[in-house]
Amino acid sequence: MIESLDPRIKRAAISTDNNIEPLSPLDQWETYEVFHQKKRGDQHMHVGIVHAANPEMALVFAKEQFGRRGLSANIWVVNTRHVFASTYEDADIFETTSEKIYREAGGYKVMDKINQYKKSQKA
Fold first, then answer.
1. For residue 73, what are the contacts with CB-CB under 8 A and spacing of at least 6?
2. pLDDT confidence tier of residue 3, bands split at 50, 70 and 90
3. Residues 24-30, mean pLDDT to the nearest whole number
4. Whole-structure pTM over 0.70, yes or no?
5. 45, pLDDT greater than 90
6. What is the C-alpha separation between 27 and 67, in angstroms, rounded?
7. Beta bridge partner(s), residue 76
8. Domain of 79: which CATH number?
9. What residues contact 46, with CB distance under 8 A and at least 6 apart?
10. What does the pLDDT look like over 55-96, one tens digit per residue?
11. Residue-number span of the structural domain to which 31 is assigned
12. What is the 3-state secondary structure (H, E, C) of the chain?
């Protein structure tokens, strides 16, 4: 058996003697969406896509591609086929009803009071 020279394979300690069937020329690896968290407590942000044979390899590829430059607290990989999105025709689900306008933040006009307070503190 030939030993892999790929550092990702060596670091992950992936066995090369398992009986994985080779992909035919028409087979494709699945795509995985990658979400990156810079520091603990921050929200995860979508940073890109990787192609991998399974979720474990997707995590390794995502770490190598998106986690090696700078700070990284956490990385998520999600199979692209598990991501669901609304259509543009369903835009009405985001509209609010007029009787629930009190839920909107536009009714609060405190910025004028905050700026007035800041001016009074400088004087």
1. 37, 38, 39, 40, 42
2. low
3. 72
4. no
5. yes
6. 28
7. 35
8. 3.10.20.520
9. 33, 34, 35
10. 999 999 999 998 887 788 999 999 999 988 888 888 887 776
11. 7-95
12. CCCCCCHHHHHHCCCCCCCCCCCCCCCCCEEEEEEEECCCCCCCEEEEEEEECCHHHHHHHHHHHHCCCCCCCEEEEEEHHHCCCCCHHHHHHHCCCHHHHHHCHHHCCCHHHHHHHHHHHHC
Q: How far is CA 57 from the centre of its chain?
A: 16
Say what the pLDDT of residue 69 is. Answer: 76
Residues 6+ apart with CB under 8 A from 3: 16
The answer to whether position 2 is within a domain reads no
Cβ proximity of 55 and 32 under 8 Å = yes
Structure tokens at 113: 């009071």
Give the strand pairing for 74-79 and 45-52: unpaired
Predicted local distance difference test score (pLDDT) of residue 5: 66
Flag whether 106 is in a domain.
no
Into how many domains does the chain fold? 1
Question: How far is 51 from 46, CA to CA, in rounded Å?
Answer: 15
